[in-house]
Amino acid sequence: MITERPMPLPDDATTEFWQACQKHELRMQRCASCKEFRWPPRPMCGACQSFDSEWIQVSGRGTIYSYVIAHAPMLPAFAPRAPFPIILVALDEDPAMRMIGNLIGDMREGLQIGAKVTVAFEEVGEVTLPQWKIVGA
Ligand SMILES: [Zn+2]
């Protein structure tokens, strides 16, 4: 049974993303050939099949595309937090680029589809996680 909060394990495709998070920067992988964003990061562009990539700092702003409230978490490590929202954020730079994340703060304050959010970084041990907070909450 997993009792500790699971943490991301950076690999060749995601190391740059996690290093940027440590600097409180949201950087997304983009194809260096056709400029399509690639999320999640991966070696090859799905649009043009190029293996060339670049990392672009994005605004960290987006819109809640969807969400769920976790009442009975799958992992015991999250039980003390329940109930908590898990949101799907469409990033301003490309609404097709959607990140799953946690919402920081009181979830009753403006949680709804279409709400504007901004990234907020949380230090958890040696990892910095991108989280989200509702703009104006
Ligand atoms: Zn491409």
- Number of separate helices: 1
- Molecular shape: globular
Oligomer: single chain
> What ligands can be seen in this structure?
zinc ion
Query: What is the CATH domain class of the largest domain?
Result: Mainly Beta
Q: Major beta sheet, specifics?
A: 5 strands, antiparallel
State mean pLDDT (0 to 100 scale): 92
Proportion of residues in helical segments: under 10%
Whole-number radius of gyration? Answer: 16 Å
Low-confidence stretches: none
> How many domains make up the coordinates?
2
Structural class: mainly beta
For the terminal residues, how far apart are their CA atoms?
36 Å
- Tell me the fraction of residues in β-strands, as a range: 35-45%
Q: Strand-and-helix sequence, N→C?
A: HEEEEEEEE
Instruction: Kindly report the spatial arrangement of strands forming the biggest sheet.
Output: 6-5-4-7-8
What is the CATH T-level topology of the largest domain? Answer: OB fold (Dihydrolipoamide Acetyltransferase, E2P)
Per CATH, the architecture of the largest domain is Beta Barrel
Report on this structure:
The mean pLDDT is 92. The protein has two domains: 11-57, no CATH class; 59-137, OB fold (Dihydrolipoamide Acetyltransferase, E2P) (Beta Barrel), CATH 2.40.50. 15% of the residues are buried. It is mainly beta and 137 residues long. The protein contains one helix and eight strands; from the N terminus they run αββββββββ. Strands 6-5-4-7-8 form a five-stranded antiparallel sheet. Strands 2-1-3 form a three-stranded antiparallel sheet, with helices on one face. It has one helix at 15-22, and strands spanning 27-31, 37-38, 53-57, 61-70, 84-91, 98-102, 116-124, 127-134. The structure holds zinc ion. Zinc ion binds at residues 31, 33-34, 36, 45, 47-48, 50.
